[in-house]
Amino acid sequence: MIRLSWLHIRSVVLGGGLLALASLTASSALAQSYPNKPVKVVVAFTAGGTTDILARMVAQQLTDKLKQPFVIDNKPGAGGNLGTELVVRSPADGYTLLVNSVGPIAVNPTLYGKLPYNPLTDLVPVVQIADVPNVLVVHPSVPAQNMDELVAYAKANPGKLNYGSTGIGTSSHLSSFMLGKRVGFDATHIPYKGADALKDLLAGRIQFMFATIPSVMQHITAGKLRPMAVSSLKRSRALPDVPTVVEKGFPNFEAGSWFGFFAPKGTPEAVITAVNKAVNEMLTLPAIEQQMVAQGADPAGGTPAQFGQFTQREHDKWRVIVRESGARAE
């Protein structure tokens, strides 16, 4: 039987307490000092896209608030996988962060089969920036003024409609796949690389597509595209007069995009807390809120835990849809 003296027990307890206090003190000091040098914010897509626009908007506010530059670094490629892996492999010190979207986090793990990393476990969710619904838009040559008329026309003309997307397995592609499956109409999918899909839609070479609201807002306003419905559960604040697909009789149809901050696994909790707090405070500013809504984005926010639970649900949802569609990355 091992007997421990009171002095030994006391030394162990005190030692543990001192270690905990030291850890708490170090965490507090880090929170107060972070950041003390420029922070690189990787965007896994090209400049000018929705991810890039939102990232730059937030980065500027963080620069002003935290008194250190938050510098955008665009690293596009492989559907967002290249930039995402770059951050996964980066030092977990809080000075390399990632602004990412639904594709690389929730869709690509299924679409690409076997990635050399797991975005759900190799990255730490920090804070959701915004929800950006997809909007179903048609070229004015399509004889449909609303969703009901579009469905009726598509059913009466099987195989005659072409829809575009920004690539196989993207939210744009899978939204249309979901709609066709739920409605029961036959249309031909034509995948593009990024913005080329919108160019052909505006030219009338394809008839409809789901697109992020920021990418088509100006064309809707100009009457060059006709909005049919949005893919969020609630109406978009940017297009309040456009109904949701759910309202048109298709329950649980939710297939929009979302955007948020992530950090490499192992990033100190104090850094996660500091960035989360700063972004949440920024999202409550009326000017930022108005700017986001004007861009077609609905500000989100919330805790890291909430964002982590959300990304897991999104991964589980898109895994089923990708498998049903048969989509595989080329």
Structural summary, described in words:
This protein is of the alpha/beta class. It has two domains: 38-131 and 257-325, Bordetella uptake gene, domain 1 (D-Maltodextrin-Binding Protein, domain 2); 134-230, D-Maltodextrin-Binding Protein, domain 2, CATH 3.40.190. It is built from eleven helices and eleven strands. The strands form three sheets. Strands 2-1-3-10-4-11 form a six-stranded mixed sheet, sandwiched between helices. It has a three-stranded antiparallel sheet with strand order 8-5-9. The chain is globular. It starts with 5 loop residues before the first helix and ends in a 5-residue tail after the last helix. The model is unreliable at 19-27 (pLDDT under 50).
Structural class, please? alpha/beta
Average pLDDT confidence is 89
Helix content: 40-55%
Q: Main sheet: which strands, in order across?
A: 2-1-3-10-4-11
CATH 2nd-level architecture of the largest domain:
3-Layer(aba) Sandwich
CATH class annotation of the largest domain: Alpha Beta
The major pleated sheet works out as: 6 strands, mixed
CATH superfamily of the largest domain: Bordetella uptake gene, domain 1
**Total beta-strand segments:** 11
DSSP strand (E) fraction? 15-25%
Count up the helices.
11
- Which segments are poorly predicted (pLDDT under 50) over 5 or more consecutive residues? 19-27
- Rg, Cα atoms, Å: 23 Å
Shape, per Cα inertia axes: globular
Number of domains: 2
Compute the separation of the termini in Å. Answer: 66 Å
Instruction: Predict the CATH topology of the largest domain.
Output: D-Maltodextrin-Binding Protein, domain 2
**SSE string, helix = H, strand = E?**
HEHEHEHEEHEHEHEHEEHHEH
Pfam family, one: TctC
Keywords: Signal
Protein name: Tripartite tricarboxylate transporter substrate binding protein
InterPro entries: BUG (IPR005064), Bug_dom1 (IPR042100)
